[in-house]
Amino acid sequence: MAVWRKRPGDKRIGLIVAAMAIAAAMTYGASSSSAETPRTVPSPTVDEAAPTSSAEIAILAGGCFWGVQGVFQHVDGVTAAVSGYAGGTGDTAQYQTVSRGTTGHAESVRITFDPHRISYGRILQIYFSVAHDPTELDRQGPDSGTQYRSAIFPRNPQQAGIAEAYITQLNQAKVFPAPIVTTVEAGKEFYPAEAYHQDYLTLHPDQPYIAINDVPKIEALQRLFPQLYRSSPVLVAAAKPAS
Fold it and tell me: Per the confidence metrics, is the pTM higher than 0.85?
């Protein structure tokens, strides 16, 4: 299914992804209990200690990276959000290879943030609340396969502990209608995706897949986290190249 929606330059893509989204809604149901429906989740009871640096990184997977990147590009305190792949090896970190679902990679987003402005725990709160459905196993919306799994790739033991404690907290509180299936996968490298995948939501807001699946996430972010919403996204295209 995903091959059609991400084939650059295919003029049929609009009709195809729209039909896919409608079919998915009919098959899996679109109700207030759907994981694709944003929801208020409690803040994590376990979070970072006082920050010791001006920049930290979170790597998260939650279905198609277009939407996850788009959400965090609108979060105040986030200084960069890059779409890419995590969970596999560097030699298989290409879109067409990852799309086979056999590489171990998940479509992921590397989020750089200022811990003095937003904590790792709050990043996870947004991730579970509006960025994706953490109860869907190896799928999100119309996309299926292990490359669309819900996964957190901690950068250190502290992040791993926060993520695991938060998943336990949300499951015990029964915030979702089904158990969270998000995995915590330590020790995995991140590999940036191809240029045409970067800033995709901002560049193609009217593309049917984006309009149906991802633009509502930005609206939910603004509604549920007004104090953290930024109207102007931080874009990969606007970043200065490393010297």
Answer: yes
